[in-house]
Design a protein that fits this description.
2 domains; mainly alpha; 58% helix; Ribonuclease iii, N-terminal Endonuclease Domain, Chain A
């Protein structure tokens, strides 16, 4: 399926911000194309397939980097660090630093808020990695991923990268013009020194997610994380 030619502005942005020149420029254009744009322009490809590929590449590159850098860390600690580095807020922050939102092709309804939405930006970051992998192989994708995410590894190891899922969920709902979610305690069990809590997060009476924790705050964060993983829009 044919796509429009890459314009000079996006080509120059990629060379400067990404540090790479695509041989197949249609891959870059596809990576920058949101599904809402593709829905309005049938000849365009959305970046969803590249995002699927890039998600695996990012995870693999960071996992391999952690495996080699920290030979003595157990699997659980490696998993914790990877989760802190390869998460929606981290990818969205790097996408903002690259100016990725300004380069995206969005549908008419997405142009106001879509360019700064965490989920849209993180998906586009992963799609860009997928495009780099297809165009330049693993080496090109690896260089980019480690350049952008590598500096977060040490901070994540020291526990300095903390994802505030409650704030992220509230901001996402508010960007869509919705009210704040509500948290309700569902279960409290165990002896005083081993308490466990289950909290549910609700929006307009609908349960978005539940989470367990050793205290209510931890359970609320987990509930918000579960809500974000299965919820793109408040409606």
């Amino acid at each position: 399926m044919a796509v429009s030619a890459l314009d000079p502005e996006r080509r120059a942005w990629c060379a400067e911000a990404v540090g790479y020149q695509f041989r197949n420029e249609s891959l870059l254009l596809e990576a920058l194309t949101h599904t809402t744009y593709a829905n309005e322009h049938p000849r365009a490809r959305s970046n969803e397939r590249l995002e699927f590929l890039g998600d695996s590449v990012v995870g693999m590159v960071i996992a391999a980097h952690l495996y080699e850098r920290f030979p003595d860390l157990p699997e659980g600690e490696l998993t914790r660090i990877r989760a802190a580095v390869v998460c929606e807020p981290s990818l969205a922050d790097r996408a903002r630093a690259l100016g990725l939102g300004q380069q995206m092709r969005l549908g008419r309804g997405e142009t106001v808020t879509g360019r700064d939405r965490d989920s849209t930006l993180s998906d586009c970051f992963e799609a860009l990695v997928g495009a780099l992998y297809l165009d330049g192989g693993l080496a090109a994708a690896q260089r980019f991923v480690l350049r952008e995410l590598g500096p977060l590894v040490e901070a994540a190891r020291q526990g300095q990268v903390r994802v505030d899922y409650k704030t992220q969920l509230q901001e996402r709902l508010q960007r869509e013009g919705a009210a704040a979610p509500q948290y309700r305690l569902l279960v409290e069990e165990g002896p005083a020194h081993l308490k466990r809590f289950q909290v549910g997060v609700y929006f307009q009476g609908r349960l978005l997610g539940t989470g367990w924790g050793r205290n209510k705050k931890e359970a609320e964060q987990e509930a918000a994380r579960q809500a974000l993983s299965g919820q793109d829009h408040p409606g």
